[in-house]
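Folding Query — how this chain folds
Tokens — whole-number codes for backbone shape
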Amino acid sequence: MSRAPDASVERAVAEAHRREWALVLAATARVTRDLDLAEECVQEAYATALTAWERDGVPEKPGAWLTTTARRKALDALRRGQTLRSKLPLLVEPEETHMEDPTYGATWPGEPEAERPTGGTVPDDRLRLIFTCCHPALSQEARMALTLRLVCGVATGDIARAFLVSETTMAARITRAKKKISAAHIPYRVPERRELAERLDAVLGVIHLLYTTGHTAPSGEELVRADLVERALDLARTLFALMPAEREVRGLFALLLVTDARRSTRTDPDGRLLLLEEQDRASWDRDAIEEGHRLVLGALRGGNAGPYALQAPIAALHAQAPNHEETDWPQILVLYDELLKVWPSPVVALNRAVAVAMVRGPEAALAEVEALERGGRLSGYRYLPATRADLLRRLGRHREAALAYRAALDLTDNETERAFLSDRLAGSTGCG
């Protein structure tokens, strides 16, 4: 009977999965040119690490070790000829005659030295694979969900929460997208520069959802998943370097910079969630806010701003206000009105209600939130009852607020958010 891996090794493998999955998959896909096979080989590499790292110790560069192992498994599979006859090529590139690791720049032992490939129009392996997966033949939602799951390593349940559907529904959608790739023989390849624009909206959506999933983790004990946040910021910065003239690229990068500037102040030393008005603004990252502000100005020039170019100044107005009360709420409400025109999302409408409460009072905001509730499109979205509960609390309707807080708790899996809602529930119950 084989014994279970050491707990420290399991932790190291889990951490490598969180931080390195996207890089390892992208590097392996360069060899396989097949998404399914690349995923299988990477999964096998992580399974191999459990025993190899216990035997030999955790390597100094876990990502490099995993990449080498996954690519070797991929080469073995290709050499046996068991998959290429039936699976769709992922990346159509010239044959590689060397085995250089494109992620870490190291040539494998026993292979000839060669110059590192430039990778065509997209220089970053992870960003290349995101553009490749965001093929216009798939629906926008399918592109984003498939990419978040396979390239970014986001759990299916967390993706489902982002799209406001059940985990079973989202799993089925991802499966259908993969089957469509195979059955329709969609020619997946790294897009040429002229083709980037038609995939850009989906790529921006992937990076934005990756960031929001890390900014407030849908599940788990920690409020923030720093690995996802940092990955999204890195991808946004790389995309901006690639396409600096695109206003929505500027807008997204600015939005992430300004929002992330307050990451360290979102919880207190005990891990308790702090609302925006409770956070220590002196501790916000002013360099990031200034960089974001400069990008906001460029994103807004020329009129007809898109959703990210409009969200960025909303975040910037929050960041530049001396305190919560002196925030330019009327201007934020105007920006939300414009945002709803270009992105008529119920989530945007719910966020707008917060600004309505600050400008016109909680009663006016509550009417809008209850209209959204009746509409049903936000059913299962934890922030709908949480927002309603807060407005009811502010209006002194504590019994109704308590019911709404309970409803929000039932929908919330993040432990930090649950602790906050439980405290609010106890306060509302005590006032009842």
